[in-house]
Amino acid sequence: MSAVLVLNGPNLGRLGSREPDVYGSQDLPALKLLLDSEAPAGTTIDLRQTDDEAELIGWLHEAVDAGTPVILNPAAFTHYSYALRDAAALVTKAGIPLVEVHISNPHARENFRHNSVISGVASGVIAGFGFDSYVLALIAIGRRS
Ligand code: DQA
């Protein structure tokens, strides 16, 4: 794999100050540094964040067209965005790995977080390990590429 897209949905740009009891005190630049240090030589980490559903869908279309594996934290879109699910399905149906990740364990939280409309079309799901959820996803993608 030469590149991995690491896509983050709404409010994840606030990591570091957002509910540190749930999400920890590290921010997205720290996540980028961590993934850069864990990526195999020659693999580029392309980490992005948006609060905009349309932009996130556009990035998944880009992954399909370029054949780029995806680590996706859909944030709150996880629980209700059928449009994002359909875009994620385009990725995996093209044979490109897409791993759904969560920093927290949504199943240990409020009821509305227990359902993911993304999981059914993801290659796999990793949740509850803080930023290590992304590292574990990177390992899983590396073993499949
Ligand atoms: C989250 C869990 C979601 O329920 C929540 O809406 C988020 C973050 C996580 O990484 O734990 O924004 O995806």
Structural account:
The protein is α/β, with parallel strands linked by helices. It has one domain (3-144): Dehydroquinase, class II (Rossmann fold, 3-Layer(aba) Sandwich), CATH 3.40.50.9100. Helix content is 37%, strand content 17%. The protein contains 5 helices and 5 strands. It has helices spanning 20-23, 28-38, 53-66, 82-93, 132-144; strands at 3-8, 44-49, 70-73, 98-102, 124-127. A 5-stranded parallel sheet has the order 2-1-3-4-5, with helices on both faces. Strand 3 (70-73), helix 4 (82-93) and strand 4 form a beta-alpha-beta unit. Helix 3 packs parallel to helix 4. It is globular. It starts with a strand and ends with a helix. The relative contact order is 0.20. The mean pLDDT is 97. It binds 1,3,4-trihydroxy-5-OXO-cyclohexanecarboxylic acid.
Short structural summary:
By secondary structure, this protein is of the alpha/beta class. Helix content is 37%, strand content 17%. It contains 5 helices and 5 strands.
The percentage of residues in β strands lies in: 15-25%
Q: Report strand order across the widest sheet.
A: 2-1-3-4-5
Quickly count the helices: 5
Q: Could you estimate the helical fraction of the residues in percent?
A: 25-40%
Q: Give me the secondary-structure category.
A: alpha/beta
CATH-scheme architecture: 3-Layer(aba) Sandwich
Give the names of the bound compounds. Answer: 1,3,4-trihydroxy-5-OXO-cyclohexanecarboxylic acid
Domain unit count: 1
Low-pLDDT stretches: none
CATH superfamily: Dehydroquinase, class II
